[in-house]
Amino acid sequence: MVKEQILLMAFDLFSQYGIKKVSMDDIARSLSISKRTLYEFFDDKETLLVNGILYNSQRLKENLEELKKGPYTALDVILLFYMEIMKRPRWYNKQYYEDLKRFPAAMKTNEEVKNDFVQQSRDLFDRGVKEGVFRSEVNIEIMALLAKEQLKMLQPSKSFCNHSNMEVYNTVLFTFLRGICTEKGEAVLQRYAVKLSYHLQ
After folding, report:
1. Nearest to residue 52, comparing CAs of 121, 20, 100?
2. Closest CA to 66 of 53, 81, 48
3. For residue 150, with 0-12 CB atoms within 10 Å meaning exposed, 13-18 middle and 19 or more buried, which class applies?
4. Labelling 76: which of 15, 24, 132, 175 has CA 20 to 30 A away?
């Protein structure tokens, strides 16, 4: 329980200030624990980072697995998963990703998590084709890789400064999905567009 609390607090701080500006002292102080207690669980900041990336990834994976067991199409699963993620809109800031480059083991873990995301996406796109919500002529491999690339949009660039992050995320997601949807898929997409107040033209 203490380990989980440390990970949650650490990544909450990282999301606000970046990794470099948050010390192990800051994390211990925020939890009202001694630094000694903190080091009982994590040898250093990089070990904490690696564990935190894996912990957050596992939580998201468990949520996705539960959705996949439900009475949903693959398109429903993708959109419900997206809505769940967006309940926690405080994405890691750009500085987090810049600072992450200073930690090779954490960078490697982060890349492995992204590669797993590609496989999850590939499986869902393939399932969606079989269910008739995604077009059969679409190259599933390319779609999965494009989904991975869209992870870079977690922190939009200054080019989008006149729009909210939510508006940017919704536009990217719905444009991407609409391009591969069948008529059946379009009907599903329209339902979620209403829920998310996104207008499909």
Report:
1. 100
2. 81
3. middle
4. 15
Q: What is the pLDDT of residue 159?
A: 67
Read off φ and ψ for residue 197, nearest 5 degrees. 55, 40
Residue type, 4: E
> Are the C-beta atoms of 124 and 174 separated by less than 8 Å?
no
* SS3 sequence of the chain: CHHHHHHHHHHHHHHHHCCCCCCHHHHHHHHCCCHHHHHHHCCCHHHHHHHHHHHHHHHHHHHHHHHHHCCCCHHHHHHHHHHHHCCCCCCCCHHHHHHHCCCHHHHHHHHHHHHHHHHHHHHHHHHHHHHCCECCCCCHHHHHHHHHHHHHHHCCCHHHCCCCHHHHHHHHHHHHHHCCECHHHHHHHHHHHHHCCCCCC
The per-residue pLDDT of the chain, averaged, comes to: 87
pLDDT number for residue 177: 92
Burial class of residue 87 (count of CB atoms within 10 Å of its CB; 0-12, 13-18, 19+) = exposed
